[in-house]
Amino acid sequence: MREKFARWDSLFALYLKRDWKKIIVWILGVGLFSAGFVSAFEEIAKGQGLAGMYETLKNPAMIAMVGPTPVETAADYTLGAMYAHEMLLFCGLFAMIMSVLHVVSHTRKEEDLGLTELVRSFQIGRQANSLASMIETIVINALLALFIGGVMMSFGADTISAEGSLLFGASIGFAGIVGAGIALVMAQIMPSSSSATGSALGIVGLLYIVRAGTDVSNVDLSIINPLSWTYLTYPFTENNWIPLIFALIFSVIAVIVAFSLEGARDMGAGYLPEREGRGNAKKSLLSVRGLFTKINKGVMIGWLVAFVIMGVAYGSIYGDMQTFLESNEMMKQMFSQSGVSIEESFTGTIMMVMIVLVSILPIVIVNKLFTEESRLHLSQIYATKVTRGQLYWTSIGLAVFSGLAGILLAASSLGGTAISVMGDSATMDIVDFLTAGYNFLPSVLFFTGLAALALGWVPKLGKLVYFYLGYSFALNYFGGILDLPEWFSKTAIQSWIPQMPMDNFDAPIFITMTVISIALMVIGYLGYSRRDMVEGA
Amino acid sequence: MVEKVINLKGLKKKFGKFQALNDVTFSVNAGEVIGFIGPNGAGKSTTIRTLLGIIRRDDGHAEIFGKDVWKDSIEIHKRISYVPGDVSLWGSLTGGEIIDLFIKLHGGGDKQKRDYLIKRFELDPKKKAKGYSKGNRQKVGLIAALSVDSDLYIFDEPTSGLDPLMEAVFQEEVEKIKEAGKAILLSSHILSEVERLADKVVIIRQGEIVETGTLDELRHLTRTTVTLATEGNVAEISEVNGVYDFEQSDNQATFSADNQYLNDILLAATNLGVKKFEAVPPTLEDLFMRHYEG
């Protein structure tokens, strides 16, 4: 037994030395994200804020996203209760993902890279590396837990007790340790480090979805879900430490299982065979469009799913819109306007916000062509009969298509959810939502055009388009509060478009912006067809 | 009159302030294999990228099949195959998928040839490209390029990362296309490979072509290494014109000799009574070093 883990301690010391910068960023990053928003939440809690938030988060769609609360009346919904309710699940998820990535990268990835081979040639036990990595991850999560607890206490808020703060931190720390355990097991089973990371993150994702189901239908069932052991501790309200005991037992078992699996396998091998890929390409891949669709598929699906979730999340607010918006002075300023119903004015604003986010995807796809170029992926393709025009316009086409699909999904999921939660009192139908969404199409096209322009002439500046998007977003989102001069808010492209349904459709603006966007794409093409390909050189 | 497949005259290209190509002039005829050699950064890849229309020349004349390499690039590409020096692939696709894709985008190739080449190069086509080593990635590029029927093949350091066995397979396959009368531009710094395959050598240095010709012609320009043992005092040879780097041990000497003075050297040696005479023609490596050190 000794033999197996010989000198793990020197590896452990080495890791701390090697990783100390990463560890600091990790603890500060996750820690401040988890504990640092107390003042912001105090702001939200002012006036009727707590009650409003309580009503909003009570509906099933929100529970599916952020989890349940043990509080049964709005009156008992304290600042601490709200903080734990809204933050704990996500922070736990965060800690888990960080630990998964860290453990796999120190164990299986090093094996794949051949580093383990080198290390084992010294007087170091066969399983010392796994033990050292695991202990390092546990230490990091323990420090993280203490840090979070300390920061939360330091705010000195009434309902954020010392015990609750420590429990809040410990729940996040344990989530990290559970994630590390899952990762260590998968690192033994899977045939390569990337499949180990993928499957471990897949399990975490699955746990999240399963708990969304059980939280909504029957919270008692959630207790068997390792991910639920975070928020089920209910810090600041019930302060229940028992789920953490489950987490401890789970982690110990996972580590034991992982070590016995590792002891019985060869270095570099897993228990599952490497999945064989295709020896021949499918017909659908064999074209520029097929190729670009394939290489953008992951990011496209990811974003489109995000748009749906976003639509559902915002849509679920419609049921208690009145309470939600009246509860908070800031919200009221952002979303209300005289003369129109509160639902309509909220739709106008939120639709613009969502379409700004939808614009990210086309920019990503257009910029991807330059990434491919500088990674030399296309070198051999340049020497075929594929024209530069085909490469360019296929990318632009895919970008525009994803913009159209993004608007459809965002607007219809917002509308669908809104209509279902409003029930009989619904004043808008799905067409209103879709029109409001597609009304912003020119702004999506405009960002696509800007990215295309950069791609054609100065591809290195493609990333700047995100900055302009972020700027427009900030201006639009907070513009209502800040009371900016007209010319200044017009520097954000969306400000030119009227917000439907509270304003009327403006055809000349719609057409002009569309034409300008198409012109940008054409000008971009002129550059792309003339310039040197970068090819890393 | 032989058809000129590649015709370059006074090619110039600047990247910012850096003059990458200063005056590149050479031509490739149908059925010829040209070895394009030079150290890293001399402008080999830049020349090739210009030929492929990936980058645009600043000045000069560049034609393939009598067509302008920039304006008519697509017409030209229908008849050429290219393998870059650093084949970079999509990690999520398998080697087989990528080969099929390249062949298809080229306009179709020989399915049987593809399968045959995969076997010859011992590539596992079902593996995702992210798991491939440098050599295996190179194989993917080579198989795709060799599976299509072209009139001109451009290889930019094609065997980097391949093991000697696979290098030999590559050389055999190139000999086959050579026999079929296709033109090949082979950029390489593996000189033995160029020596074996090339009819003509083009040497580039700092963006300029410094030497062009058949290996024999080039050898003529340089010195032969001679080992000589004589009955008389061999040291006398060191006085003869055209003898350099003279080194003597007992009555045996090794020196390099200018080819034009070989006759004088032989006459002098005969006077001393020749016991042993060995003359080794310069290798490409010697030629190469001469250009880069001198």
From TrEMBL, chain A:
Whether Transmembrane counts among this entry's keywords is: yes
The residues that cross the membrane are 23-41, 87-107, 128-153, 165-187, 194-211, 241-261, 299-317, 350-370, 391-416, 436-458, 465-488, 508-528
Q: What's the name of the protein? A: Tetronasin resistance protein
Q: Which UniProt keywords apply?
A: Membrane, Transmembrane, Transmembrane helix
Q: Does the keyword Isomerase apply?
A: no
**Taxonomic lineage:** Bacteria, Bacillati, Bacillota, Bacilli, Bacillales
